[in-house]
Structures are given as C-alpha cells and as structure tokens.
Amino acid sequence: MTGIYPLIICGGNGTRLWPVSRTQSPKQFQKVGDATSATFFQSAVERHRGPGYEAPCIVSAARHRATIAEQLAEIGCTAQVIHEPMGRNTGPAVLAAAMVLQAQNPDAVMLVVPADHVIEGDLNSTILAMHSSALAGFIITFGIKPRYAETGFGYITDGGPMIEYPGLRQVDRFVEKPPTRKARLLVESDIAYWASGISMFAARTIIEEYEKFDAATVAAVRRAVSEGRQAPDGLELNAEHFGQAFAGPTESIVFEKTRRIALAPLDVDWSDVGSWTAMYGISKSDTQGNVLQGDVIAVETTNSMVRSTSRLVTVVGLKDVIVIDTPDALLVTRVGHCQSVKKVAEYLKGGNRVEAERHVPAAATGPVRGFNGMTTLFKNDAVEMASARVMAGTTLELDPTARREILVAKGSLIVATIEANVTLVAGQRLDLPGAMPAVLVNTGDVEAEVLVTTLHGQTAVQTNEAYAELPVALYA
C-alpha cells in the first residue's frame, strides 16, 4: 500500500500578522518564533515526513516559487510543486493536485494541510489510522475539541459513531463562524469540534464528488493541468483555463453537500495563529509573561510581546502590549486588539502603499541587504540597481514591477518566464518587459552572481532579431 501524499496549500495573505506578513511574503513563509526557528510552511512540511508518507505536493501562487524552493532546500525536502497563475481559493487548488497525483498513482490518498497553522501533539497516529477509510471512499475532516467559544472558527457537530469504521464519526452539520452566544452553546454541547482545515481522501474520491456539484470547474481545472507547462521547478497551470474555475473553498462546494463526509477527532493543541495575540499565546514566555524575540530589552514590562527583526528595540514600563518592528514598518498595539491589524493592511492597500505588498529595504549610504536575496546598490525614482547571488540548485523570483535588465556577472542562469526559458552565461544580458514575472534558476554546480537594474516608467526595446518572437531581448 502506498503512503499518504501531504498536500500543502500556501494560499492567503495573513494580513493580521502585518508588518511581518505582506502580500508578497505572507504569513506561511515567516518564522514561527525567533530567527532560529522554522517557518510555518517548513513546520507543516516537517510534520508529515517519515513512515506512511510520500513526498509532499505543494500548491502556491507562482510569485512564491523562489521562496518555496529556498525553504524546501533549507530542510532538505524534495516536493512536487504546482504553481497557480492566480488564486481561486482551495477548491481548484485541491482539484489540480488530485488530478496530478491520480495520474501518477490511481490509489493516491491526499492529506490537505494548511501551511500556516501551529500544531503540537500526536497528530499523525490518528491520520495514519484513517488511511484505509480514505481508500474506502470517505472524505475525512479532522476536528479539534474546542477550548473556548471562538467566533472566528468554523465548527463541526458530531452525528455519532460509524460502527464499521473505528475512529470515524458521522457529521451532523457544519457551522461557519457563529456569533458569540451560538459559539458558547456549541462548546457547551460537548458534541462540537473546531474545523481544523485538515482533511484526507483519495484523489479519485474528491474528483468524483467535485464533479457532482461543479462539473464546469472540474473541466476547467483538468484543462489547466493538461495544458500547463512543466517548468524546472514545477507545473505551471494554464492561466486561461484555471481562471475559468469557480473560486470557492472545498468545504462549501463538496464537504457540506457530499454523503461521503466523515469526522475524525484529533487530540492536539492547535492554533491557526490568526493574529499577533494568538502568536503571543502560542509562544514561550519568560517569568514576567513576556515574549521577546530578536535584539530586545524590556524593563518593568509584563505580559507583552516584542519582536525585532533588524535592530535593537527597548521598551520600558509597558503592560499587555505587542510591538513588532521590521526595517520599514513598526506596529504597536495592545493584546486583544490585534484582529484590527487587518484594517491597517487594508488602509495601506487603499493608499497604494508598497508596505502592504512587500518589505522595502531601509535607506542607507552603502549597499543595503534587502529581502528575497537581493542587495540594493543604488536607487532613485527612475532607476534601481541590485545584486544577488543565486546558490547552485536554487531559484530567485523577480517581482513583475517594471522593465528590468538582467546582467549575469558570474556562472550561468536560466531566466524562466511564462513564455520561454532563456539561458544566460557570464557577460550576457536580458531585457524583461514590465509586468512579466520571472524566475532565475541556477541549475549549475557553482554559485551565480547577477545584477538586476529596474527602469521605472521605461519600455523594453528589442535588440536582437534572433529573439524577436520571445517576450525578451537577449544581447551580449
């Protein structure tokens, strides 16, 4: 019997964990604790490695491909990666993975795992015990006994045991984010569970059930897979067809309608870490009730969280506060008010502030070590020049912001775009039009160095007839 394929979906922007989480570097790719800890994504991958599991399958936005490759390399894990050209919620993401895995293994069983949760306890014993039930055709959703009346979670109510399938229980109903009074009644009923976001089923089962309720989306995703492009770092779904899929969660499209649904209770500590208050709650505190991460000094301060990613932060005489400092933004709030941080991110987006989308290196007179492996050398309103070292066997994603000129100074790189792959060696340059995402791929055995010049407000010029049919111009 083959093992279970963990399917890790890296969707969501995690705006409640701003300013660490941004649209282009969201929560799942941030570290759970201090600088030495794993990221949420890495923790999710590591949680389901070992006996009973196959190599994971990752579904994520194409713009995160470099981050995924880098973080998988850090933990020494190989995976199948599916790149989404746009977000269509969890339903189409799960469908695409199911089609890919079923083509490889008709008996493939998938374990859908959120990339941004924190779980402590024996999770895998229950999951592995449900393998045969998934092969039998059940769609299993895993529930967690609620510790308090949370209005931001979904609930599943227990409909009684399934005698022929030990450990499985019938699902009575789903309750999505109830008001406070109803949440309290659910918790007091002793038959309700938090919906963990973890589920398991055979690939063929989810495809069959999805077809019953949304055949058009199944057809669109099937064509997105079959007409996708196999890039060096994963499958790129066809954008035209994937865009025709209905953007909805698997839970409302299938789980709440199918007769194959079943509940498996989990006995673990679980948090979706949906706010800085939740992050404070899951972190280990000192004798004063403080969680201090990074270069932090706290004097006469209690029950607070202070996190610094780049410089010394000092706090004096504070209580019940959260301070999150990054190179380009500072958040100060009170414990219990952190759900409103999302409003800050929305305000920034409404004002077209770059801080909502990505981290911005702080200004300095010399080179600035930025994010995504880039070092800013020079910057003004018209031109920005940066350098990067791309280690052997890794990738680096370039944001599709404006016209960019790429010059390889050392080694060789493949520049992968949605239209073509072009190989550059030392001394060669490439011109990328604006709004075109690109990934630098180092398939060689030695480190490569590259200079990237961004020319704001300028258009690309074709300079080599040999590449006239490509969206880029290559010249020595």
Automatic annotation (TrEMBL):
Transmembrane segments: none annotated. Residues 294-347 form the MannoseP isomerase/GMP-like beta-helix domain. Gene3D superfamilies: Spore Coat Polysaccharide Biosynthesis Protein SpsA, Chain A. Coiled coil: none annotated. Pfam families: ManC_GMP_beta-helix, NTP_transferase. InterPro entries: ManC/GMP-like_b-helix (IPR054566), Mannose-6P_isomerase_type2 (IPR051161), NTP_transferase_dom (IPR005835), Nucleotide-diphossugar_trans (IPR029044), RmlC_Cupin_sf (IPR011051). Residues 6-288 form the Nucleotidyl transferase domain. One of its GO terms (molecular function) is mannose-1-phosphate guanylyltransferase (GTP) activity. GO terms for biological process: GDP-mannose biosynthetic process. This is Mannose-1-phosphate guanylyltransferase.
